Structure formats: structure tokens, C-alpha cells
């Protein structure tokens, strides 16, 4: 049994990953904004085999809740979490983001500022415990800014860089940091996009995440083929890249 | 053909009809064979995101879960705790919502009735924004309309089911050879008294005095507990649509003969994992692809007991004469347990289920003949396995139709409903069944 803290527990990837943990018999502490959604997810996970499931309702963009929720998680789980899954984020509408600076700041707050603040506190606690794994869900979109979603890409690029720095800082303390870079996943976040063969179901991504935690991977693309795709995308010369419409 | 737009539902607490301004239909895993789960030109509300368990009491076997949970997921959760769905069809890849909408049946209809008979309660969301918990006690009319209601009374968000206790995952199964139709009726009558599960596979190419030749499967839950470490079976898959030329009289005949021979060797009693007993085709992924791009046509009728011997003989005779054999012809007697739905298909008598490779007009013509023969014998037809029945066939099959229609949700519709009630004719170009469909096994 492991103690698992899930931040953004009602996101599709988080819920699917939590199911894998529940079936393994791990104890879960779930944080999400909507009480009704949180309750639906928590009941399900308890039935799927999690020996303990506790929920905590919070808007993680409100940084003032962060200490309180980490204290609550430790108290409920009976110790500092062994796996911390950071799985919340906002895609934002490119059309709006291109015109509205406040909307852009909001996406940066949700995807970068709040995670940096929260993981700073988490890192301190895990380092003190001398063990644990932090899993950050970034995105392939952080590998290179595209004309279609520059703000989202920038927020995820920032998160990827932060996780990479955190990893380098924490490994001596015995704390492991895993960066997950999913491609397109069939979730409510992408409900408005036309689905193609590149879309992966959340369950497959969840399996990949837990496998990567088990083998202490530093960075994982999910599904795997995105590593090749993004290798190619990163190597397109900027002169050509700026002309591509995607 | 106009495609349906698809919207995913994720949260049972939220209104499935929010912002919907066209006719909609809840869609689960799409295992219905015809157009009863399709809604061309409209909206499909996909329930697969509603896949959470809500509550389970391992002392009483009462399970509450969201409508998009599949029977496979239920079995995974409850079988290790000693509980199994009271009624399962030939595939476990159907959702609870779909099982309710079609009021499905299984090999134990003669004992347990339909799936709906074991639904204790369900929550129904209607397009007027209302949300009601329906059961035999609360809103009983809406409950009766929704069970077997083809998704046309609104969207079911969750349901509460009564499961049955089992000792383990095994069936004490027995296979008996049946030389002809008369013997089927004898074996069936004798077996229904002693076995919870009974069904017969019929060689549809057998002619003359051999009509009705086949194998009779029967079984009861074994008392053997699960053997630790026994994994599920490996999975085969049909990788692409086979050219339809591979499916001709010769191959069907060869298949039927080989199947008969192989299974004849397995006559007698044995203990079998319930996956193989209930869901044989689930072991072959996308088996529907053997029918090629044009897919298959399904036919299932239920004929009243008195007329059954004559009507079934006539149906099998016509199929054999046409040489359009199907891989799976299934014969079973339905029992007297009343079905709770106004539009429930199962009723006392004998049911015959068949599938045909779709070869266009020739196949359609044969299937139309079968409808005529069955209807003359007082037969009723099953919307979940249909692409052909006429508005008259439908009305004749379901005498409580007018009562049902009072509970229709005005925002709901399906291709099937427009065909049998609003006079939009069958379109032969209709691809039968969704592209990714697995399918039903040998349960009628």
C-alpha cells in the first residue's frame, strides 16, 4: 500500500491513474474543486479497492489553501505522501487567449504559477521525509510553442523546466520527480477537438504513468510515439516552423 | 448518410441535455446491431464517461453504478466478491444503460426473466430538466417505459441492480447433441427444469428431416471456488474486414460442419470458466469484421409456444433453401417470468436468432420473407437486432406501444424510431452496427 496524493483528482487522466492505484490497494487523498464530482470519483475509487479515500475541496489557484491541504493530506494518509500526482491544468481557447491578456494570465496561473507554488511546499516535505515521487503532468505542447496555442505551450514549457530543475535538486534527498508529457488524450479538456487516431484513451495514459513511476523514469511521453514526433518537431528550423500552420 | 454528432457525458450530477437543441440519443458501447443505437443527423450522448461505481454491498449483492459501466467492469469488480449479474447476454461489452434500454435477456430467461427484472431503481434525466428516481414503487409508469424503452424516454444516469451469489467463476456445463427440431423441444423442456442456463446452436444448413440439428448447451453455476492465479483467456482479433467472397455457401457450410464436429467431441459434462460459457465471441475481438465492409444483418424473433414448432421449422427450411447460412443460429425457449418493460422483447415461447452476411437485395429479400413467416405465426421482433422490420411488424410486436409513447421524451429519437414510427424507410446503404462493434455471442 502506498500513500497517494492526487491534485486535480477529477481530471480524466488523474481519475484513470487513481483507479490503477486503487486496484493496487493504495490509500488516496484527492483534491478537486467541485464537491459533487469529487464525491463521485471518491466513491468509485473506494469500491475499486482503495483502502482509504479522502476528499478535499479546494481551488488550487488560491495559493492560500496549499499548506492546509498538505497538512490535511498527511493527517489523513498517516504520513507524508509517497506519490504526489499533479494533474490539473487548463487548455484555454486559443481564440480568446490571442486577444485577452487576462485569460492568458489565468492559464499561466493554473498551469504554472499554482503548480510551482504547490510543488515547492510538496518538495520541502518529501525532502524532509527523504523519499517519495512527484509526478507532474506537463504536455508535448511544452516542447515547442505553436501558433495555435502559444500560451498553453508556454505554461507547459515552464512546468517542464520547473520539474526538470526540481528533479535535479531533489534526487540527492531521495525524492524522485517524473515529468509526463501526454499527447492528445480523449478527455473533457479536448472534447471540442475532432478525434483522430493520435488520440489516446485516459486509461492507457494512466497505465503508462504508473509504469513510469515504478521504474523511476525521469521523463515519459505517452503514448510512446510522441517522443519521435516531438523529436522531429523540435528539430524543424524556426525559419520553416514559423510558416507551419498548426 | 448524415452522421450523428457525438457529445461525451462525464458527470451524473450534470444535466445531459444542457445546451442540446437537436434530437438526442444516449449511446453506450453500440452493440445493438441495427439503427436502434444510432441517430443520424442528430446527437449521440455518449455515456462511456459515466463509468463509476456508486455503491456496492457485498452482503446483499446490491450494486449501484453509473449507466456507462459495462457488464465486464461489473463482473471484474463483483465476481471476486462472489456476485454475478443476474442476467447476462452473449457479450459482456454492453453498458448497464444499454442493457436497460433493450431489456436484454440471457440463457436463463426461463428462470430469471430479463435484465430489467433485476433493476431495483434507476435515475432518469429528461430534456425538460427534470431528474427522477424510478422503480417499481416510485414513478412505476416511467420505469416500465424506460426498461426496454430503447433510450427514448430520456437519459439514464445510474441504476441499482440486484446481483446473484455465486461460489466462483465456473459453470457446470453440459453439451447435448440434438438431431432435429422435435428433439430440441424435448431436450429444452427437460433441461429448463434442471438447468439455469439453456441455449441451442443450430446448423442452419441442415435440410429435410435434419432441420433443427444442433447442439444444446446447458449449465448451472458450479460450487467450485476460484482457483488462484487462473488468468483470463488470451484474445484473438480479426485484424481487418475480410473480403465478402470468403463468406459463401461453402465456407459457411464448412464452418458449421467444423463447429458441429468440434463441439460434438466436447459432448458431456465439464466445468467451464463462465467467460467461455457466456461470452464465447468476446474472445475474438471485432469478429464482426468477418462479414466484410457491408456487415451483417441480424434477425431475432420470438414465437408463441403453440405455433413455435411449425414456424421455426418453416424459418429454418427457408434459410437452408436459400443457402444463406449464418454462422450463428441460436434457439432458446423463453419462460413465463414477466418482463417489466412496456417494450420488452422476451415473452413466453421460442426465440430464434440469426445473422446473415449482408449481400444486398438478395439477403434483404430473404430476411423480409422470414419476417412474414414469423409474423404470421404471431411472432415478435427484437429492435436491438434489426434493420428491416416495418412499422407494421413493430406495432404488431408491441401491443403496449401507445402506452409507451405517452412517456417518450420529445428531445429523444433514433434511426430505428424514425424508421418504424415516422415512416423513414430502411436505407440499404446503412452500415449495420458501429464500426468498432464487437458483438454478441451465441445467446439469443
TrEMBL record, chain A:
Keywords tagged on the record: Oxidoreductase
Pfam families: adh_short (PF00106)
Transmembrane segments annotated in the record for this chain: none
The keyword Oxidoreductase appears for this protein: yes
Recorded coiled-coil stretches: none
Family: Belongs to the short-chain dehydrogenases/reductases (SDR) family.
NCBIfam families linked: PRK07102.1 (NF005489)
Protein name, per record: Short-chain dehydrogenase
Source organism phylogeny: Bacteria, Pseudomonadati, Myxococcota, Myxococcia, Myxococcales
